[in-house]
Fold these 2 entries.
Entry 1:
Amino acid sequence: MHSTEYDSELVKAGASAQGAFGQTAYFLRRYPLGAIGAVIMALFVLAALFADFITAYSPLSTDAALSLAAPSRAHWLGADYMGRDIYSRIVYGARISLAVGLGSTGLGCALGVVVGLVSGYLGGWVDLIAQRVMDILQALPLLVLALVMAAALGPSLWNTIFAISIPLIPAIARVIRSNTLALRELAFVEAAQAIGMSELRIAARHILPNTVAPLIVLATAQLGAAILTEASLSFLGLGIPEPHPSWGRMLSESAAEYIRTAPWLVIFPGLAISLVVFGTNLLGDALRDILDPRERG
Amino acid sequence: MDTHDPMPPVLDVAGLRTMFFTRQGLLRAVDDVSFSVARGEVLAVVGESGCGKSITALSIMRLVPSPPGRIVGGSVTLDGRDLLKLDEAQMRGVRGNEMSMIFQEPMTSLNPVLTVGSQISEAIRLHQDLSRAAAADKAVEMLRRVKIPEPAQRAREFPHQLSGGMRQRAMIAMALACNPKVLIADEPTTALDVTIQAQILELILRLQQDLGTAVILITHDLGVVAETAQRVIVMYAGRKIEEADVGALFAEPLHPYTHGLLASVPRLAIMSGQVQAAQERLQEIPGMVPPLTNLPTGCAFAPRCRFADAQCRAAFPPYTQPRRGHWVACWHSERLYGAGA
């Protein structure tokens, strides 16, 4: 006997999702991995925002007596060789990671979108020149760029953000350009021309919204990558300068010397980095599915 | 033209030439095409794929993709203004405002990420100084005029939530929102199924009568022509070869190509076997349309024409008017009926 369970099928399809709670419940059921990613990212952002309220110690205050202290009730994740509380430093480090991640992704996206849109929509020699410039940017090794910038301008938050955003520009520009190339051949562009719309307006109002979905997916993936890159740069001493708590620097300070004697110095910052990158990737995948306009009800 | 039509033409196209400069060579997509449309008139442009119908329409709108295309000659006069002499900004003020176009593909002619209403009100706001809210109201009103049920609700929906016929209605609403003098409909019903086709054509005709818009209807469907148009232009290989009132053209085509075209339309009598077996097979025009990059000198139809002779192959025939208001470009149009066919 086949009897279709209409009600349960409808529930599965989200028909009953009403109100904020129902929508959330539907989202959880439909994209469980995306929900995990969203929770991780929410915790990360909340930690960065409310770092002052959820930590008991300053991330910068040292205490010789606590040097390399193991995790305890007072210091949940232990303390480093200068006696600074690891938990506090990780929470405050979230601010740096978030600032670098958002800052460099935002900067890279803004420039990449402009270049990609102009290059793809106008085509011709504009496209040719823009793409060669992108080739040059892509050929610049990130570490060398960051090294030169750190050497010339001194390591700082802004230099780090700028250095990380440079290789993002060609990556974003390529995606936007290829989308634009495909989109500008579609009938709605011709229809927009036929109602008397200017080229610039068509690019901004009709092409750009159609590339937002791939852009957001790419940007979330790049957010994780940017955080990871910041950690690498700081690990090499090219990123955020002392005494600011950067996850990468926390790793680099302790990895070689203390991994055997005080492994918590390495494990917890490493976990923080992995967790956030994992979260951005899960969220990015779910966003890709959700942002497809055909999925919208 | 003579006293044939009483209304002064709102759009007059004279000697229009559009060429594509391609690697394969010079492609004469539209060659010396002239016609005019009066207010409230429906002019059909017929011909098979690649005969230059759509490029004629795009040339009038000045939307020919350039490069490789370019309008190299002629004039397009809309209400006394030569559109080919306007600059791009002035031309944008004409498009969608004084002259609109609807396309063959309703499925892709609307932007998938914007609501239907916002796209229509955007078209209105490009040309009229209306507030956002007023334009949105007008968009809903236009959707109501094109007989979309629940227009206020539909205006908030995305194109993928509408059927093909609905989307074409929305396109018509957008095209007519600024009350243009001329509407160019490029195969507006080709992508729709037959019942919807009839509804859309009826809608275009009714709005055209209400608003007094002149319509240029581009199609390859002779049935559509017979139902809707007052006058017909037949194009072949980038040239106009015949122009007549719709009745005259269907009753007595004067160009061998038009004759062949009409003979190749399936008729109920043939399909139901009421005529002799010898004629049962549908007539066809032998041969192929010559490639536009390599047109023969003289009449392009000559290689497929049973009346063709040296004269046809030497020079393109002049436009003659064997009957009042019925123009044809053929050296031998009298032979069609004279030979006792």
Entry 2:
Amino acid sequence: MRTVRDIAVVAFGQTDHRRTSDELSEVEMLLPVLHDVLDRTGLQTSDIGFTCSGSTDYLAGRAFSFTMALDGVGAWPPISESHVEMDGAWALYEAWTKLLTGDADTALVYAYGKSSPGSVRDVLTRQLDPYYVAPLWPDSVALAALQAQALIDAGETDELALASVAARSRSSATANSHAQLRGSVPQGDYLVRPLRTGDCPPIGDGAAAVILAAGDRARELCERPAWIRGIDHRIEAHSLGVRDLTDSPSTRLAAERAGAFERPVDTAELHAPFTSQEVVLRKALRLDDSVRINPSGGALAANPVMAAGLIRIGEAAARVHRGESDRALAHATSGPCLQQNLVAVLEGDAR
Amino acid sequence: MSKEPVAVVGIGQTKHVAARRDVSIAGLVREAAQRALEDAELTWADIDAVVIGKAPDFFEGVMMPELYLADALGAVGKPMLRVHTAGSVGGSTALVSTNLVAGRVHGTVLTLAYEKQSESNAMWGLSLPIPFQQPLLAGAGGFFAPHVRAYMRRTGAPDTVGSLVAYKDRRNALKNPYAHLHEHDITLEKVQASPMLWDPIRYSETCPSSDGACAMILTDRAGAARSPRPPAWMHGGAMRSEPTLFAGKDCVSPQAGKDCAADVYRQAGIADPRREIDAVEMYVPFSWYEPMWLENLGFADEGEGWKLTEAGVTELEGDLPVNMSGGVLSTNPIGASGMIRFAEAALQVRGQAGEHQVDGARRVLGHAYGGGSQFFSMWLVGAEPPAS
Amino acid sequence: MPEVLKAPLVVEFPFTRSLGPVQSAFLTGLRERVVLGVRTTDGRTLVPPVEYDPVTADEIRDLVEVAPTGTVTTWAWNHEPRRGQPLGTPFAWVLVKLDGADTALLHALDAPGPDAVRTGMRVRVRWATERSGAITDIACFEPYDGAPGELTGHDGRFGDMVTGIVAPARLDYVYSPGRAQSAYIASLSERRTVGERCPSCRKVYVPPKGACPTCGVATSEQVEVGPRGTVTTYCIVNIKAKNLDIEVPYVYAHIALDGAGLALHGRIGGIPYDEVRMGLRVEPVWSEGGRHPDHYRPTGEPDADYETYKEML
């Protein structure tokens, strides 16, 4: 993928992800994370060229909730700003396009989600076809379970293999102080068969922020910027009944367009809230055992809805910053059973 | 490194009405998108990406509806983005799409905004209960009326100005086949005799609640060269935001609006907007916002906006026509209202506005705002490609 | 840390959805116990019928009948049904490819247990006793051991077409306002209005949000403001809103409490509505058990000079 400007992730911050944060409003939860990424770069709000966020009103039941979150940014004097009703990974994508135009050299991207006020399994049913599907209230775990069974029927996985994905993720998360589920977590009973509680993400609240910068600005702000070599996203048909649930053609296409297959990556942060979805993604992204998958623990260790995709990009970038990765893939998803997928390829300069 | 110029080569709207009972949500957006494609003489396969916007998801009770609408908008296998910046969203959605072209990510983009308000009730959607907060109001009129009173106090504008705007916009709407309200028997007396809802705002000075969608096809120079009809070229575009409420906020003439306009004029090389801009489609949901925005956007000095309205300058035949389409006062599918402003501005410079065409319109401003007068998005389009 | 405030928040609305021709025919068909699909331009049959081809984006309207019997393509056992789901007893979610269809329909399968369900099993529609033209006219699927069901020969044209559905949706939340607003609410219960001062710009925010919106920093220093204040601007509300127990006309005002950096919103009483004016000096009137001041009334002081509050408009 060739772009007109080199753009990098230069800072990443996130909250500790917890089952509930009811002592904090959304802006109170978000504020420390915004300060964290600004502090890491030494930037102030007034230095930021563009700001973009991702969130959804439905999660906490508050219309226009993003307008209240803006109070944490310090939007004065007025700022160039936008919002997507999508995971923050797509807010990062919008910011990336803004930087490409040359209108801005730096961007602040943030996302937050509080699942604790509602029942996220039921809330997500409101994403579904409002005529034929939403009236049946099929919850997000049920839909993922249909996908998992399709994978088992196709011989692509089994319950034991899924359990090992869960165990590996939570074991990796022991090194991630922000994670909600860490270490040895029982695989548990069926939630919706064939998925057990261990196959499903924890429900919780959290926020994350990233700073992007272009060209030399990135080198000034970060010792080892995580250059976005490519980023692309694709959507599939909405109805589960017209899709092959064992595959993710949109992920594969996004990865191709992002240049992911041009050279192997050493690390991949995959936004797979369910163990079975990691199976689908590994296949679509052609990731073999040489690739370190979800060293952060992934969405199985912490899944603040609307921020979890941005966190994948942030975690991948942070490994590049720390010199733990030279070429990392980050993935984000949205919609039932991986309907929409984003892939970014991040690289560090040669050491 | 310079930006790729961005052209509008296709525009489509639905006939806006109170309730489109004959179509699904998908059917509504599809109709606008199809018309934009036909205008550009393109097919679904020519579209590289789709950017969609709407106001709160609670309005239709569909969370992140772009997921369900992917099929109807031919987005399967393509990138699809969903923007939400409150009332300014229609404008912001268009601007996000222009970045894709200007940054050379994609060649041709479909951008679309909609609201199907008949699925629920705008009053409900805008006034969800919030525990521990004292319910004092419902709907937007009461929220904005105190700001109108502040404007009147600040400028000494006579209290008839609001009715002049409403009378003008409703007459303009009669020349726009897509407008929601077609009040053939409208008179100034009727506007002035309509009930006072949120004093100083009268019923006839408020916007309706509509079902509608608006779509545009944006493309690069190569795409514009293939366009069967004259394109509209973007000469400047910007978004600005400020907090909802803060100490020192000017609710009458917010700084974010001034800064946004200044950025657009800078990009477009406009030194004197009053002389160099031929017409404006601005977001006026309550009639008094016309004189307020005339000042905020730099078309009049502070305190003088109402004089332009009163002198007839903003009439269709005036020196600076405002809301030739009939504006938000005549058509308000909330999420789409901003994009309709942008699209109507483009129609004018393409010379395709039909009966509400301003003769010789070469440079026209499209404007949208939202939230507590805090989110602004604007673009300036021209008949000629931008000088680079 | 003080106790966290919480309250239930119910978001509920009966959405009225118009259907368009294809969905209208499908749901009317269900009412008449006929299952319709739609044929794509390349000859596939999609069930349930969608309005736009997911592959080609074509608008498609060519309705064809398919059988009420079919084959399970995947399933998931739901041992704990949730509110609104098709069955109240444990059931399987299934994707079913109906005989004659090329795509699968999502619904519930009534089966005795997970051991009775497998991919590839044959099922048939169990019709709801009372049908209105909705996806729930299919009560669920049930195991079926037989040949493809008979077609009725229907062409999708019905008298009395269903053109819309009402889709009630209720979501229950527990709302908590966070630290700063909880403290504000707690002080109100002592009939005091306490804001927070920004450590950077020194402005006092009432109600406090926990962050200074212009400086983007956390606020914590508590400052009592008022009780008196000045009406900066207002409107007279003449229309009665549903669920709002206030007699019209009434005055909705922006009130800058003495010491506050910006105005809050309240109702003005104790004075005829048409005598309220900008600059009026007011004070809160509390009602027994009310969480907020019921309204603000004139103090009798001279009106504030416009110059003293014009920056708060």
